[in-house]
Design a protein that fits this description.
The structure is a homodimer. By secondary structure, chain A is α/β, with parallel strands linked by helices. Chain A has 12 helices and 10 strands. Chain A is about 40% helix and about 15% strand. In chain A, helix 9 links the parallel strand 7 and strand 8.
Amino acid sequence: MTLPRIGVFDSGVGGLTVLKAMSEQFPAHYLYFGDTARLPYGTKSAETVARYAIGATRFLEAQNIDLLVIACNTATALAFPLIQQAAHVPVVGVVEPGAAMAAELSKSRAAIVIATEATVSSHAYRDALQRHGVAAHEKACPLFVPLVEEGWIEHPVTEQVARIYLGEALAQAPQQADVLVLACTHYPLIAPLLRRIAPEHMQIVDSAESTARAVKKIIEKHPTLSPTAGDKGGAPAQGLDEENQGVILSEVRLPLAAAERSRRTPMDAKVSPAEHRTFRFYVTDSTDKFKRLATRFLGRQVDHVEHVDLGG
Amino acid sequence: MTLPRIGVFDSGVGGLTVLKAMSEQFPAHYLYFGDTARLPYGTKSAETVARYAIGATRFLEAQNIDLLVIACNTATALAFPLIQQAAHVPVVGVVEPGAAMAAELSKSRAAIVIATEATVSSHAYRDALQRHGVAAHEKACPLFVPLVEEGWIEHPVTEQVARIYLGEALAQAPQQADVLVLACTHYPLIAPLLRRIAPEHMQIVDSAESTARAVKKIIEKHPTLSPTAGDKGGAPAQGLDEENQGVILSEVRLPLAAAERSRRTPMDAKVSPAEHRTFRFYVTDSTDKFKRLATRFLGRQVDHVEHVDLGG
Protein backbone atom coordinates (compact mmCIF):
# COMPACT_ATOMS: atom_id res chain seq x y z
CA MET A 1 0.00 0.00 0.00
CA THR A 2 1.24 3.46 -0.90
CA LEU A 3 -0.01 6.71 0.54
CA PRO A 4 -0.74 9.56 -1.87
CA ARG A 5 1.93 12.25 -2.09
CA ILE A 6 0.19 15.59 -1.55
CA GLY A 7 2.05 18.77 -2.50
CA VAL A 8 0.89 21.78 -0.50
CA PHE A 9 1.90 25.22 -1.69
CA ASP A 10 1.59 28.59 0.02
CA SER A 11 3.43 31.90 0.11
CA GLY A 12 4.31 31.28 3.75
CA VAL A 13 2.89 29.63 6.84
CA GLY A 14 -0.83 30.25 6.20
CA GLY A 15 -1.25 27.07 4.17
CA LEU A 16 -0.29 25.10 7.26
CA THR A 17 -3.90 25.47 8.41
CA VAL A 18 -4.88 23.57 5.25
CA LEU A 19 -2.14 20.99 5.89
CA LYS A 20 -3.38 20.58 9.47
CA ALA A 21 -7.00 20.17 8.36
CA MET A 22 -5.98 17.58 5.74
CA SER A 23 -3.74 15.60 8.08
CA GLU A 24 -6.61 15.41 10.56
CA GLN A 25 -8.87 14.03 7.83
CA PHE A 26 -6.72 11.49 5.94
CA PRO A 27 -3.28 9.82 5.85
CA ALA A 28 -0.78 10.89 3.17
CA HIS A 29 2.79 11.92 2.51
CA TYR A 30 2.58 15.70 2.78
CA LEU A 31 5.18 17.92 1.08
CA TYR A 32 4.72 21.55 2.13
CA PHE A 33 6.33 24.38 0.16
CA GLY A 34 6.34 27.88 1.74
CA ASP A 35 7.63 30.60 -0.59
CA THR A 36 8.71 32.66 2.42
CA ALA A 37 11.40 34.66 0.61
CA ARG A 38 8.72 36.28 -1.52
CA LEU A 39 5.76 36.52 0.85
CA PRO A 40 3.29 38.07 1.24
CA TYR A 41 1.54 37.46 -2.07
CA GLY A 42 -1.41 39.51 -0.78
CA THR A 43 0.14 42.79 -1.87
CA LYS A 44 1.44 41.61 -5.25
CA SER A 45 0.09 41.66 -8.80
CA ALA A 46 -1.47 38.67 -10.59
CA GLU A 47 1.48 38.35 -12.98
CA THR A 48 4.02 38.23 -10.16
CA VAL A 49 1.99 35.73 -8.12
CA ALA A 50 1.50 33.46 -11.16
CA ARG A 51 5.24 33.42 -11.89
CA TYR A 52 6.09 32.53 -8.28
CA ALA A 53 3.38 29.85 -7.99
CA ILE A 54 4.43 28.09 -11.20
CA GLY A 55 8.03 27.97 -9.99
CA ALA A 56 6.87 26.27 -6.80
CA THR A 57 4.66 23.88 -8.78
CA ARG A 58 7.67 22.75 -10.82
CA PHE A 59 9.65 22.17 -7.63
CA LEU A 60 6.92 20.07 -6.01
CA GLU A 61 6.35 18.07 -9.19
CA ALA A 62 10.05 17.23 -9.17
CA GLN A 63 9.37 15.70 -5.72
CA ASN A 64 6.94 13.32 -7.43
CA ILE A 65 3.66 14.56 -5.97
CA ASP A 66 0.34 12.97 -7.01
CA LEU A 67 -1.80 16.02 -6.35
CA LEU A 68 -1.14 19.71 -5.71
CA VAL A 69 -3.05 21.86 -3.24
CA ILE A 70 -2.71 25.62 -3.74
CA ALA A 71 -3.19 26.34 -0.03
CA CYS A 72 -3.05 30.07 -0.63
CA ASN A 73 -6.12 32.15 -1.32
CA THR A 74 -4.19 34.85 -3.12
CA ALA A 75 -2.42 32.43 -5.46
CA THR A 76 -5.66 30.56 -6.12
CA ALA A 77 -7.61 33.76 -6.68
CA LEU A 78 -5.05 35.34 -8.97
CA ALA A 79 -3.36 32.46 -10.74
CA PHE A 80 -5.34 29.20 -10.48
CA PRO A 81 -6.02 28.71 -14.23
CA LEU A 82 -2.37 29.44 -15.05
CA ILE A 83 -1.10 27.01 -12.40
CA GLN A 84 -3.54 24.32 -13.51
CA GLN A 85 -2.42 24.79 -17.11
CA ALA A 86 1.25 24.52 -16.12
CA ALA A 87 0.83 21.53 -13.77
CA HIS A 88 1.09 17.84 -14.69
CA VAL A 89 -0.89 16.62 -11.66
CA PRO A 90 -4.43 17.42 -10.48
CA VAL A 91 -4.60 20.84 -8.78
CA VAL A 92 -6.98 21.86 -5.98
CA GLY A 93 -7.34 25.50 -4.96
CA VAL A 94 -8.91 26.98 -1.83
CA VAL A 95 -11.48 29.28 -3.45
CA GLU A 96 -13.94 26.79 -4.96
CA PRO A 97 -14.19 24.50 -1.88
CA GLY A 98 -14.86 27.52 0.36
CA ALA A 99 -17.43 28.94 -2.02
CA ALA A 100 -19.16 25.55 -2.40
CA MET A 101 -19.37 25.12 1.38
CA ALA A 102 -20.74 28.67 1.80
CA ALA A 103 -23.37 27.97 -0.86
CA GLU A 104 -24.32 24.75 0.92
CA LEU A 105 -24.84 26.61 4.20
CA SER A 106 -26.42 29.89 3.11
CA LYS A 107 -30.19 30.05 3.27
CA SER A 108 -30.40 33.74 2.41
CA ARG A 109 -28.08 33.38 -0.62
CA ALA A 110 -25.88 36.24 0.64
CA ALA A 111 -22.41 35.97 2.19
CA ILE A 112 -19.58 38.16 3.51
CA VAL A 113 -16.07 37.22 2.39
CA ILE A 114 -13.07 38.50 4.37
CA ALA A 115 -9.59 38.19 2.82
CA THR A 116 -6.36 39.95 1.89
CA GLU A 117 -6.40 42.97 -0.37
CA ALA A 118 -5.26 40.99 -3.43
CA THR A 119 -7.85 38.23 -2.96
CA VAL A 120 -10.61 40.83 -2.65
CA SER A 121 -9.35 42.78 -5.67
CA SER A 122 -9.40 39.61 -7.76
CA HIS A 123 -13.12 39.06 -6.94
CA ALA A 124 -12.43 35.31 -7.21
CA TYR A 125 -14.79 34.56 -4.30
CA ARG A 126 -17.53 36.87 -5.57
CA ASP A 127 -17.38 35.11 -8.94
CA ALA A 128 -17.24 31.59 -7.44
CA LEU A 129 -20.14 32.32 -5.08
CA GLN A 130 -22.13 33.86 -7.93
CA ARG A 131 -21.79 30.58 -9.86
CA HIS A 132 -23.38 28.92 -6.82
CA GLY A 133 -26.20 31.49 -6.75
CA VAL A 134 -24.88 33.36 -3.69
CA ALA A 135 -24.29 37.13 -3.62
CA ALA A 136 -21.04 38.12 -1.89
CA HIS A 137 -19.78 41.24 -0.18
CA GLU A 138 -15.98 41.17 -0.08
CA LYS A 139 -13.99 42.98 2.60
CA ALA A 140 -10.18 43.34 2.73
CA CYS A 141 -8.69 42.90 6.22
CA PRO A 142 -4.95 43.53 5.67
CA LEU A 143 -4.06 43.69 9.37
CA PHE A 144 -5.23 40.18 10.27
CA VAL A 145 -2.20 38.40 8.77
CA PRO A 146 0.41 40.52 10.62
CA LEU A 147 -1.63 40.25 13.84
CA VAL A 148 -1.72 36.45 13.57
CA GLU A 149 2.00 36.34 12.74
CA GLU A 150 2.68 38.58 15.77
CA GLY A 151 0.95 35.87 17.80
CA TRP A 152 -1.82 38.20 18.97
CA ILE A 153 -4.46 35.51 18.49
CA GLU A 154 -6.57 36.23 21.57
CA HIS A 155 -5.65 39.86 22.08
CA PRO A 156 -7.57 43.08 22.69
CA VAL A 157 -5.94 44.80 19.68
CA THR A 158 -6.94 41.95 17.35
CA GLU A 159 -10.44 42.07 18.79
CA GLN A 160 -10.63 45.84 18.22
CA VAL A 161 -9.36 45.48 14.64
CA ALA A 162 -11.84 42.63 14.02
CA ARG A 163 -14.70 44.76 15.37
CA ILE A 164 -13.73 47.58 12.98
CA TYR A 165 -13.36 45.32 9.94
CA LEU A 166 -16.50 43.26 10.62
CA GLY A 167 -18.45 46.40 11.52
CA GLU A 168 -17.53 47.96 8.17
CA ALA A 169 -18.33 44.72 6.32
CA LEU A 170 -21.73 44.34 8.01
CA ALA A 171 -22.61 47.98 7.31
CA GLN A 172 -21.88 47.54 3.61
CA ALA A 173 -23.13 43.97 3.02
CA PRO A 174 -26.73 42.95 2.26
CA GLN A 175 -28.53 42.74 5.61
CA GLN A 176 -29.58 39.12 5.15
CA ALA A 177 -26.00 37.78 4.73
CA ASP A 178 -25.86 34.61 6.83
CA VAL A 179 -22.40 33.19 6.08
CA LEU A 180 -18.94 34.63 6.82
CA VAL A 181 -16.22 33.12 4.63
CA LEU A 182 -12.68 33.16 6.08
CA ALA A 183 -10.97 33.48 2.71
CA CYS A 184 -7.40 33.62 3.99
CA THR A 185 -5.53 30.65 5.39
CA HIS A 186 -4.28 32.71 8.36
CA TYR A 187 -7.79 33.41 9.58
CA PRO A 188 -8.65 29.97 11.06
CA LEU A 189 -6.34 30.91 13.95
CA ILE A 190 -8.61 33.80 14.89
CA ALA A 191 -11.82 31.91 14.07
CA PRO A 192 -12.84 31.65 17.78
CA LEU A 193 -12.41 35.44 18.18
CA LEU A 194 -14.33 36.11 14.94
CA ARG A 195 -17.05 33.68 16.11
CA ARG A 196 -17.56 35.82 19.26
CA ILE A 197 -17.76 39.07 17.29
CA ALA A 198 -19.82 37.99 14.27
CA PRO A 199 -23.63 38.07 14.60
CA GLU A 200 -24.91 34.82 16.09
CA HIS A 201 -26.99 33.87 13.07
CA MET A 202 -23.94 33.95 10.77
CA GLN A 203 -22.24 30.65 10.01
CA ILE A 204 -18.47 30.72 9.57
CA VAL A 205 -16.89 28.89 6.64
CA ASP A 206 -13.20 28.12 7.04
CA SER A 207 -11.57 27.69 3.63
CA ALA A 208 -8.81 25.47 5.07
CA GLU A 209 -11.37 23.00 6.41
CA SER A 210 -13.42 23.13 3.20
CA THR A 211 -10.34 22.49 1.06
CA ALA A 212 -9.31 19.50 3.17
CA ARG A 213 -12.74 17.96 2.62
CA ALA A 214 -12.54 18.57 -1.12
CA VAL A 215 -9.10 16.91 -1.35
CA LYS A 216 -10.35 13.94 0.68
CA LYS A 217 -13.22 13.45 -1.77
CA ILE A 218 -10.85 13.52 -4.75
CA ILE A 219 -8.55 10.95 -3.15
CA GLU A 220 -11.46 8.66 -2.36
CA LYS A 221 -12.78 8.91 -5.93
CA HIS A 222 -9.43 8.25 -7.61
CA PRO A 223 -8.34 4.67 -6.86
CA THR A 224 -4.70 5.39 -7.81
CA LEU A 225 -4.54 8.14 -5.19
CA SER A 226 -6.43 6.34 -2.45
CA PRO A 227 -4.46 4.91 0.47
CA THR A 228 -6.55 1.74 0.18
CA ALA A 229 -5.27 1.13 -3.37
CA GLY A 230 -2.42 -1.31 -4.12
CA ASP A 231 1.25 -0.33 -4.08
CA LYS A 232 2.16 2.00 -6.92
CA GLY A 233 5.58 0.41 -7.28
CA GLY A 234 7.47 1.65 -4.28
CA ALA A 235 10.31 3.18 -6.27
CA PRO A 236 11.92 6.06 -4.39
CA ALA A 237 10.43 9.37 -5.40
CA GLN A 238 12.56 11.92 -7.22
CA GLY A 239 14.55 14.08 -4.90
CA LEU A 240 14.81 11.45 -2.20
CA ASP A 241 18.52 11.00 -2.69
CA GLU A 242 21.12 10.39 -0.03
CA GLU A 243 21.74 14.07 0.58
CA ASN A 244 18.13 14.66 1.51
CA GLN A 245 17.80 11.85 4.00
CA GLY A 246 18.72 14.07 6.92
CA VAL A 247 15.67 16.27 6.51
CA ILE A 248 13.11 13.59 5.82
CA LEU A 249 10.88 13.33 8.86
CA SER A 250 9.42 9.94 8.20
CA GLU A 251 9.47 9.33 4.49
CA VAL A 252 8.62 5.64 4.38
CA ARG A 253 7.74 3.32 1.57
CA LEU A 254 7.84 0.21 3.71
CA PRO A 255 4.62 -1.57 4.67
CA LEU A 256 3.06 0.65 7.31
CA ALA A 257 3.39 -1.80 10.18
CA ALA A 258 7.13 -2.02 9.52
CA ALA A 259 7.41 1.72 9.21
CA GLU A 260 5.58 2.05 12.48
CA ARG A 261 8.04 -0.25 14.18
CA SER A 262 11.05 1.47 12.62
CA ARG A 263 10.46 5.05 13.70
CA ARG A 264 7.96 7.57 14.91
CA THR A 265 8.19 11.35 14.67
CA PRO A 266 6.60 13.99 16.90
CA MET A 267 4.29 14.83 13.95
CA ASP A 268 2.63 11.44 13.93
CA ALA A 269 3.05 10.33 17.49
CA LYS A 270 -0.69 10.29 18.11
CA VAL A 271 -1.56 8.61 14.81
CA SER A 272 -2.25 4.90 14.58
CA PRO A 273 -0.24 2.81 12.07
CA ALA A 274 -3.14 2.61 9.62
CA GLU A 275 -3.42 6.39 9.71
CA HIS A 276 0.19 7.13 8.86
CA ARG A 277 1.22 10.61 7.75
CA THR A 278 4.63 11.97 6.82
CA PHE A 279 5.63 15.60 6.51
CA ARG A 280 8.36 17.43 4.65
CA PHE A 281 8.75 21.20 4.73
CA TYR A 282 10.53 23.36 2.16
CA VAL A 283 10.92 27.14 2.40
CA THR A 284 12.66 29.74 0.27
CA ASP A 285 13.77 31.93 3.20
CA SER A 286 14.98 31.52 6.80
CA THR A 287 14.00 28.15 8.22
CA ASP A 288 14.12 29.47 11.81
CA LYS A 289 11.25 31.90 11.48
CA PHE A 290 9.23 29.28 9.61
CA LYS A 291 9.80 26.69 12.35
CA ARG A 292 8.65 29.13 15.02
CA LEU A 293 5.46 30.11 13.19
CA ALA A 294 4.78 26.57 11.92
CA THR A 295 4.81 25.27 15.46
CA ARG A 296 2.11 27.83 16.32
CA PHE A 297 0.05 27.06 13.20
CA LEU A 298 0.22 23.27 13.48
CA GLY A 299 -0.02 23.22 17.24
CA ARG A 300 3.03 20.95 17.50
CA GLN A 301 6.80 21.13 17.15
CA VAL A 302 8.27 21.45 13.63
CA ASP A 303 12.00 20.79 13.72
CA HIS A 304 13.14 19.87 10.24
CA VAL A 305 12.71 22.40 7.46
CA GLU A 306 14.69 22.45 4.24
CA HIS A 307 15.82 25.64 2.52
CA VAL A 308 15.22 25.83 -1.24
CA ASP A 309 16.48 28.52 -3.60
CA LEU A 310 14.28 29.00 -6.65
CA GLY A 311 16.31 32.06 -7.72
CA GLY A 312 15.15 35.66 -7.67
CA MET B 1 25.48 73.22 -13.86
CA THR B 2 24.44 69.63 -13.35
CA LEU B 3 22.51 68.33 -10.41
CA PRO B 4 23.71 65.14 -8.73
CA ARG B 5 21.84 61.98 -9.65
CA ILE B 6 20.82 60.32 -6.38
CA GLY B 7 19.69 56.69 -6.49
CA VAL B 8 17.32 55.82 -3.65
CA PHE B 9 16.62 52.19 -2.94
CA ASP B 10 14.03 50.57 -0.70
CA SER B 11 11.97 47.40 -0.56
CA GLY B 12 8.81 49.43 -1.00
CA VAL B 13 7.40 52.82 -0.16
CA GLY B 14 9.15 53.38 3.19
CA GLY B 15 12.23 54.94 1.60
CA LEU B 16 10.01 57.71 0.29
CA THR B 17 10.30 59.35 3.72
CA VAL B 18 14.07 59.55 3.07
CA LEU B 19 13.43 60.85 -0.46
CA LYS B 20 11.06 63.46 0.95
CA ALA B 21 13.56 64.56 3.62
CA MET B 22 16.35 64.84 1.03
CA SER B 23 14.25 66.74 -1.50
CA GLU B 24 13.36 69.22 1.24
CA GLN B 25 17.07 69.72 2.00
CA PHE B 26 18.78 69.89 -1.43
CA PRO B 27 18.15 69.88 -5.20
CA ALA B 28 19.00 66.74 -7.21
CA HIS B 29 17.78 64.29 -9.79
CA TYR B 30 16.20 61.59 -7.65
CA LEU B 31 15.78 58.05 -8.98
CA TYR B 32 13.71 55.96 -6.58
CA PHE B 33 13.66 52.16 -6.81
CA GLY B 34 11.02 50.27 -4.80
CA ASP B 35 11.42 46.50 -4.88
CA THR B 36 7.71 46.06 -4.26
CA ALA B 37 7.43 42.57 -5.79
CA ARG B 38 9.66 41.23 -3.04
CA LEU B 39 8.71 43.37 -0.03
CA PRO B 40 8.76 43.26 2.90
CA TYR B 41 12.45 42.67 3.53
CA GLY B 42 11.75 42.85 7.27
CA THR B 43 10.82 39.17 7.46
CA LYS B 44 13.62 37.86 5.22
CA SER B 45 17.10 36.47 5.81
CA ALA B 46 20.33 38.44 5.32
CA GLU B 47 21.31 36.36 2.27
CA THR B 48 18.00 36.97 0.51
CA VAL B 49 18.01 40.69 1.29
CA ALA B 50 21.61 41.07 0.06
CA ARG B 51 20.79 39.34 -3.24
CA TYR B 52 17.78 41.58 -3.83
CA ALA B 53 19.59 44.79 -2.87
CA ILE B 54 22.54 44.14 -5.15
CA GLY B 55 20.17 43.51 -8.07
CA ALA B 56 18.57 46.90 -7.43
CA THR B 57 22.00 48.54 -7.10
CA ARG B 58 22.96 47.24 -10.55
CA PHE B 59 19.75 48.63 -12.02
CA LEU B 60 20.25 52.08 -10.50
CA GLU B 61 23.89 52.21 -11.56
CA ALA B 62 22.75 51.51 -15.12
CA GLN B 63 20.69 54.72 -14.75
CA ASN B 64 23.97 56.57 -14.19
CA ILE B 65 23.55 57.56 -10.55
CA ASP B 66 26.32 59.46 -8.73
CA LEU B 67 25.45 58.23 -5.24
CA LEU B 68 23.26 55.47 -3.82
CA VAL B 69 21.12 55.80 -0.71
CA ILE B 70 19.99 52.51 0.83
CA ALA B 71 16.80 54.04 2.20
CA CYS B 72 15.82 50.81 3.87
CA ASN B 73 16.81 49.97 7.42
CA THR B 74 16.56 46.23 6.88
CA ALA B 75 18.75 46.24 3.77
CA THR B 76 21.27 48.56 5.45
CA ALA B 77 21.28 46.49 8.63
CA LEU B 78 21.63 43.14 6.92
CA ALA B 79 23.54 43.84 3.73
CA PHE B 80 25.32 47.22 3.78
CA PRO B 81 28.91 45.91 3.51
CA LEU B 82 27.91 43.58 0.65
CA ILE B 83 26.10 46.36 -1.22
CA GLN B 84 28.99 48.77 -0.70
CA GLN B 85 31.40 46.13 -2.00
CA ALA B 86 29.26 45.49 -5.08
CA ALA B 87 28.57 49.17 -5.87
CA HIS B 88 30.64 51.45 -8.11
CA VAL B 89 29.32 54.70 -6.57
CA PRO B 90 29.42 55.99 -2.97
CA VAL B 91 26.77 54.30 -0.83
CA VAL B 92 24.95 55.81 2.17
CA GLY B 93 22.86 53.68 4.49
CA VAL B 94 20.28 54.72 7.06
CA VAL B 95 21.78 53.07 10.15
CA GLU B 96 24.95 55.10 10.72
CA PRO B 97 23.32 58.55 10.26
CA GLY B 98 20.54 57.63 12.71
CA ALA B 99 23.02 56.25 15.23
CA ALA B 100 25.28 59.31 14.91
CA MET B 101 22.36 61.66 15.48
CA ALA B 102 21.19 59.66 18.50
CA ALA B 103 24.71 59.78 19.95
CA GLU B 104 24.79 63.54 19.40
CA LEU B 105 21.54 64.00 21.32
CA SER B 106 21.85 61.48 24.14
CA LYS B 107 23.10 62.84 27.44
CA SER B 108 22.52 59.60 29.37
CA ARG B 109 24.29 57.46 26.70
CA ALA B 110 21.31 55.08 26.51
CA ALA B 111 18.76 54.83 23.70
CA ILE B 112 15.74 52.78 22.65
CA VAL B 113 15.65 51.63 19.02
CA ILE B 114 12.34 50.56 17.46
CA ALA B 115 12.41 48.73 14.11
CA THR B 116 11.27 45.69 12.12
CA GLU B 117 12.06 42.20 13.33
CA ALA B 118 14.93 41.73 10.86
CA THR B 119 16.58 45.06 11.72
CA VAL B 120 16.41 44.23 15.41
CA SER B 121 17.73 40.70 14.87
CA SER B 122 20.70 42.08 12.95
CA HIS B 123 21.66 44.30 15.95
CA ALA B 124 23.02 46.81 13.42
CA TYR B 125 21.79 49.77 15.50
CA ARG B 126 23.04 48.33 18.78
CA ASP B 127 26.48 47.88 17.22
CA ALA B 128 26.50 51.32 15.55
CA LEU B 129 25.37 53.04 18.76
CA GLN B 130 27.94 51.12 20.75
CA ARG B 131 30.67 52.52 18.47
CA HIS B 132 29.36 55.98 19.47
CA GLY B 133 29.43 55.05 23.17
CA VAL B 134 25.66 54.71 23.51
CA ALA B 135 23.94 51.61 24.93
CA ALA B 136 20.86 50.54 22.98
CA HIS B 137 17.76 48.56 23.79
CA GLU B 138 16.22 47.28 20.56
CA LYS B 139 12.50 46.53 20.23
CA ALA B 140 10.78 44.92 17.22
CA CYS B 141 7.45 46.51 16.30
CA PRO B 142 6.22 44.36 13.39
CA LEU B 143 2.70 45.81 13.31
CA PHE B 144 3.70 49.42 12.65
CA VAL B 145 4.45 48.91 8.94
CA PRO B 146 1.10 47.26 8.11
CA LEU B 147 -0.72 49.87 10.23
CA VAL B 148 0.96 52.72 8.32
CA GLU B 149 0.26 51.00 4.99
CA GLU B 150 -3.40 50.56 6.04
CA GLY B 151 -3.44 54.35 6.44
CA TRP B 152 -4.20 54.17 10.18
CA ILE B 153 -1.77 57.00 10.94
CA GLU B 154 -3.80 58.80 13.60
CA HIS B 155 -5.95 55.91 14.74
CA PRO B 156 -6.93 54.46 18.13
CA VAL B 157 -5.67 50.98 17.15
CA THR B 158 -2.25 52.34 16.15
CA GLU B 159 -2.15 54.28 19.40
CA GLN B 160 -3.01 51.15 21.40
CA VAL B 161 -0.35 49.13 19.55
CA ALA B 162 2.20 51.91 20.09
CA ARG B 163 1.39 52.03 23.82
CA ILE B 164 1.96 48.25 24.05
CA TYR B 165 5.22 48.29 22.10
CA LEU B 166 6.64 51.40 23.80
CA GLY B 167 5.47 50.14 27.18
CA GLU B 168 7.34 46.87 26.67
CA ALA B 169 10.42 48.71 25.40
CA LEU B 170 10.46 51.13 28.35
CA ALA B 171 10.03 48.27 30.82
CA GLN B 172 13.03 46.42 29.39
CA ALA B 173 15.34 49.33 28.53
CA PRO B 174 17.77 51.06 30.91
CA GLN B 175 15.74 53.60 32.87
CA GLN B 176 17.88 56.53 31.84
CA ALA B 177 17.34 56.05 28.07
CA ASP B 178 16.72 59.55 26.67
CA VAL B 179 16.54 58.97 22.90
CA LEU B 180 14.03 56.98 20.85
CA VAL B 181 15.39 56.02 17.41
CA LEU B 182 12.77 55.42 14.69
CA ALA B 183 14.82 52.81 12.86
CA CYS B 184 12.30 52.04 10.12
CA THR B 185 11.51 54.39 7.25
CA HIS B 186 7.76 53.87 7.72
CA TYR B 187 7.83 55.25 11.23
CA PRO B 188 8.22 58.98 10.45
CA LEU B 189 4.54 58.90 9.43
CA ILE B 190 3.54 57.99 13.00
CA ALA B 191 6.19 60.21 14.60
CA PRO B 192 3.57 62.70 15.93
CA LEU B 193 1.64 59.81 17.55
CA LEU B 194 4.86 58.35 19.02
CA ARG B 195 5.83 61.83 20.26
CA ARG B 196 2.60 62.00 22.28
CA ILE B 197 3.11 58.52 23.79
CA ALA B 198 6.85 58.57 24.49
CA PRO B 199 8.03 60.07 27.81
CA GLU B 200 8.48 63.83 27.46
CA HIS B 201 12.18 63.76 28.26
CA MET B 202 12.91 61.39 25.35
CA GLN B 203 14.12 62.92 22.12
CA ILE B 204 13.01 61.25 18.89
CA VAL B 205 15.56 60.56 16.14
CA ASP B 206 14.06 60.01 12.71
CA SER B 207 16.47 57.97 10.55
CA ALA B 208 15.01 59.44 7.33
CA GLU B 209 15.81 62.98 8.46
CA SER B 210 19.27 61.96 9.72
CA THR B 211 20.11 60.22 6.45
CA ALA B 212 19.07 63.25 4.40
CA ARG B 213 21.46 65.40 6.43
CA ALA B 214 24.28 62.89 5.96
CA VAL B 215 23.76 62.82 2.17
CA LYS B 216 23.66 66.62 2.05
CA LYS B 217 27.02 66.78 3.83
CA ILE B 218 28.59 64.31 1.37
CA ILE B 219 27.32 66.28 -1.62
CA GLU B 220 28.66 69.52 -0.20
CA LYS B 221 32.06 67.95 0.47
CA HIS B 222 32.41 66.39 -2.98
CA PRO B 223 32.71 69.15 -5.62
CA THR B 224 31.82 66.78 -8.47
CA LEU B 225 28.53 65.93 -6.78
CA SER B 226 27.64 69.44 -5.67
CA PRO B 227 24.97 71.35 -7.59
CA THR B 228 27.20 74.40 -7.50
CA ALA B 229 29.91 72.55 -9.47
CA GLY B 230 30.35 73.00 -13.22
CA ASP B 231 28.50 70.96 -15.82
CA LYS B 232 29.63 67.34 -15.88
CA GLY B 233 29.18 67.18 -19.65
CA GLY B 234 25.45 67.20 -20.13
CA ALA B 235 25.35 63.96 -22.11
CA PRO B 236 22.07 62.16 -21.61
CA ALA B 237 22.30 59.58 -18.84
CA GLN B 238 21.94 55.91 -19.63
CA GLY B 239 18.38 54.76 -19.78
CA LEU B 240 17.02 58.13 -20.87
CA ASP B 241 16.12 56.90 -24.34
CA GLU B 242 13.11 57.90 -26.38
CA GLU B 243 10.94 55.12 -24.97
CA ASN B 244 11.39 56.38 -21.45
CA GLN B 245 10.49 60.00 -22.13
CA GLY B 246 6.85 59.44 -21.21
CA VAL B 247 7.68 58.57 -17.63
CA ILE B 248 10.26 61.25 -16.98
CA LEU B 249 8.69 63.81 -14.72
CA SER B 250 11.11 66.64 -15.33
CA GLU B 251 14.41 65.13 -16.36
CA VAL B 252 16.22 68.22 -17.63
CA ARG B 253 19.79 68.82 -18.59
CA LEU B 254 19.21 72.31 -19.98
CA PRO B 255 20.40 75.36 -18.06
CA LEU B 256 17.97 75.64 -15.17
CA ALA B 257 16.43 78.94 -16.22
CA ALA B 258 15.52 77.44 -19.60
CA ALA B 259 14.23 74.30 -17.94
CA GLU B 260 12.16 76.45 -15.65
CA ARG B 261 10.60 78.24 -18.59
CA SER B 262 9.98 75.03 -20.49
CA ARG B 263 7.98 73.07 -17.94
CA ARG B 264 7.06 72.61 -14.31
CA THR B 265 5.66 69.51 -12.66
CA PRO B 266 3.48 69.17 -9.57
CA MET B 267 6.52 67.73 -7.75
CA ASP B 268 8.54 70.91 -8.05
CA ALA B 269 5.83 73.53 -8.37
CA LYS B 270 6.87 75.23 -5.13
CA VAL B 271 10.60 75.00 -5.82
CA SER B 272 12.54 77.94 -7.18
CA PRO B 273 14.63 77.43 -10.37
CA ALA B 274 17.86 77.31 -8.42
CA GLU B 275 16.37 74.58 -6.23
CA HIS B 276 15.38 72.23 -9.04
CA ARG B 277 14.53 68.61 -8.31
CA THR B 278 13.44 65.83 -10.65
CA PHE B 279 11.93 62.50 -9.68
CA ARG B 280 11.74 59.11 -11.35
CA PHE B 281 10.08 56.11 -9.74
CA TYR B 282 10.73 52.44 -10.56
CA VAL B 283 8.95 49.51 -8.94
CA THR B 284 9.07 45.75 -9.42
CA ASP B 285 5.36 45.16 -8.80
CA SER B 286 2.02 46.89 -9.42
CA THR B 287 2.47 50.61 -10.07
CA ASP B 288 -1.09 51.41 -8.91
CA LYS B 289 -0.60 50.40 -5.30
CA PHE B 290 2.75 52.22 -5.24
CA LYS B 291 1.18 55.43 -6.59
CA ARG B 292 -1.53 55.35 -3.95
CA LEU B 293 0.90 54.80 -1.06
CA ALA B 294 3.57 57.12 -2.50
CA THR B 295 1.07 59.96 -2.60
CA ARG B 296 0.43 59.41 1.12
CA PHE B 297 4.14 59.15 1.96
CA LEU B 298 5.27 62.16 -0.07
CA GLY B 299 2.24 64.25 0.72
CA ARG B 300 1.67 64.98 -2.95
CA GLN B 301 0.43 63.31 -6.11
CA VAL B 302 2.70 60.70 -7.78
CA ASP B 303 1.41 59.90 -11.25
CA HIS B 304 4.24 58.38 -13.24
CA VAL B 305 5.79 55.15 -12.03
CA GLU B 306 7.70 52.71 -14.21
CA HIS B 307 7.50 48.95 -13.81
CA VAL B 308 10.83 47.07 -13.83
CA ASP B 309 11.30 43.31 -13.92
CA LEU B 310 14.54 42.16 -12.29
CA GLY B 311 13.50 38.49 -12.60
CA GLY B 312 12.50 36.17 -9.76
